[in-house]
Design brief:
There is one protein chain. The chain is of the alpha+beta class. It has 7 helices and 11 strands. The strands form 4 sheets. It has a 5-stranded mixed sheet, covered by helices on one side. Strands 1-2 form a two-stranded antiparallel ribbon. Strands 4-5 form a two-stranded antiparallel sheet. The chain is globular, with a radius of gyration of 19 Å. It starts with a helix and ends with a helix.
């Protein structure tokens, strides 16, 4: 979602009085269902976190929410929110804005559906996504552009890995190689291999 927010910065803004405030940091709220209701802890500077760090943080938030130990600080702020009704079996919903944020992305259950591909009806896993937004700042064009970009990034994760390649100026090659062997899928290893080889040649 952050890649799509960077391409459509008004969705990461807020209204303060008569002013629109554009934010160039990404504190992403993650809606979590707890025993006492929905809570939205915030991933601070989410654009600077790795996938593993994001996964670990969300897992910790979920555990704290169930135990009722989330701090007020963890719930403060946020520039954009993501909610996933799919964990409860929802196929489609209308997410509700979390003011003063101006947009919220709703994800849903992935389900096999018939679709047309090259003139043939085939079965594919599909997920509906929904975006609620404040029309005072965001118009329909920006909203659709954002959703299309989210779709593109989900369907083509190589794009995200390319961004990782560009950001990693220095790294511990041995540790990365071990991590790829231990945790990386075959596809991920293939994506990193040429870049690793180029780094080794320059070393």
């Amino acid at each position: 979602a952050i890649g799509a927010l960077k391409a459509n910065p008004r969705l990461n803004a807020e209204i303060q009085g008569d002013d629109m405030v554009l934010k160039h940091y990404y504190d992403i709220g993650v809606a979590i269902g707890a025993e006492e209701g929905l809570v939205v802890p915030v991933l601070r500077d989410a654009d600077r976190l790795s996938f593993a760090q994001i996964e670990t943080a969300i897992k910790r938030f979920a555990q704290d929410a169930q135990k009722g130990t989330l701090s007020l600080e963890a719930l403060r702020g946020g520039t954009f929110t993501i909610t996933n009704g799919g964990v409860f079996g929802s196929l489609m919903s209308t997410p509700i804005l979390n003011p003063p944020q101006v947009a919220i992305l709703g994800l849903h259950k992935i389900q096999q559906r018939p679709v047309a591909v090259d003139g043939q009806v085939v079965i594919r896993p599909m997920m509906y996504v929904a975006l609620s937004y404040d029309h005072r700042i965001v118009d329909g064009r920006e909203a659709v552009t954002f959703l299309v970009r989210v779709k593109e990034l989900i369907e083509d994760p190589e794009t995200l890995l390319d961004a990782v390649h560009r950001k990693l100026d220095t790294f511990d090659a041995a540790r990365l190689e071990q991590a790829l062997r231990d945790y990386g899928s075959a596809r991920t290893r293939r994506l990193f291999r040429p870049w690793m080889s180029e780094h080794d040649a320059q070393a």
